[in-house]
Amino acid sequence: MTKTNALRMIEQAGIAHEVRKYELAMEDFTAERVADLVAMPPDQVYKTLVAVGDRNGPCFAVIPANTELDLKALAVAHG
Question: DSSP assignment of 54-69, as one string?
Fold first, then answer.
C-alpha cells in the first residue's frame, strides 16, 4: 500500500489509527460511501479537503464524512 502524506503525518505524531482497504469506483467516490464500505458510522470517517485562499495560500479542513464544508467559515478561520 502506498502511504499518503496524511498517513505519514499521523504516524509521525504517534496518533493511534487503523488503516482499512476497500475497492471503490471513482464515480462513487464519496466519504459517506467509504464509511459504508468499511462498516463505520459516517461521523467516525473523516474527509480531508484542501482549499487555496487568496491571501494565505493553501489550507486543510478535516470534517466528518456526513457533513459539508462551510467555505465562509473556512475563509474566516484561515484569514
Answer: TTTEEEEEEEETT---
